[in-house]
């Protein structure tokens, strides 16, 4: 089955700096890679996703990149703000599959 | 629409007790699932369902039962609670995966403590 590894587990940056979170997956059949943000005490919510036929996707200050050959994908947050402080989860879903498998999460702290 | 509704939000059980976490969605989603969230371990899939009458195991199914008699409801049952089941539980739903739409909509979570 799919296994998703996520690094780092904790990331602390200064406001205005960039943050990068990296994930690797094991199942080469995976074709959908979402990222979820979970604020303290809240439910996870989708912030961006990428499919296997796309190498990069941007949405304002966040972007995701995908390298299918190496089986890794990354989340990039530019110009970080205190409200970006949260736990971020990457995930993967195989083609035709129904299981969304999550990484262990990255706790991002943005210091003002 | 209320989205995904979970009850109860908090529950304390004694070892060996049973209980059911309720989950309901009003978005006509075919796919529903249960996750548990533990510190440092992310969200782990317990059970999932791709439609009424169909359920399957996830990554950590032991100690939990599910059923899906309607599209709207997907309850999670703990038959004999153990301290290792102390966790935050999230129910999530999604549109039919056959349409390749993958976004999960989560409930607010249920915090369970087993003493």
Structural write-up:
The complex is a heterodimer of chains A (112) and B (115). Chain A has no helices and 11 strands. Chain A has 112 residues and is mostly beta strands. In chain A, the strands form 2 sheets. In chain A, strands 2, 4, 5, 9, 10 and 11 form a 6-stranded mixed β-sheet that branches. A 5-stranded antiparallel β-sheet of chain A has the order 1-3-8-7-6, with no helix packed on it. In chain A, β4 (30-38) and β5 form a beta hairpin. The mean pLDDT of chain A is 93. By secondary structure, chain B is an all-beta fold. Chain B contains no helices and 11 strands. In chain B, strands 2, 4, 5, 6, 9, 10 and 11 form a 7-stranded mixed β-sheet that branches. A 4-stranded antiparallel β-sheet of chain B has the order 1-3-8-7, with no helix packed on it. The mean pLDDT of chain B is 93.
Briefly summarize what is shown.
The complex is a heterodimer of chains A (112) and B (115). Chain A is mostly beta strands and 112 residues long. Chain A is 0% helix and 58% strand.
Topology:
The complex is a heterodimer of chains A (112) and B (115).
Chain A: E1 4-7, E2 10-14, E3 19-25, E4 30-38, E5 45-51, E6 56-59, E7 62-67, E8 72-77, E9 86-94, E10 101-102, E11 106-111
Parallel strand pairs in A: 2-11
Antiparallel strand pairs in A: 1-3, 3-8, 4-5, 4-9, 6-7, 7-8, 9-10, 9-11
Chain B: E1 4-7, E2 10-13, E3 19-25, E4 31-38, E5 42-51, E6 54-57, E7 64-66, E8 76-78, E9 87-94, E10 105-106, E11 110-114
Parallel strand pairs in B: 2-11
Antiparallel strand pairs in B: 1-3, 3-8, 4-5, 4-9, 5-6, 7-8, 9-10, 9-11
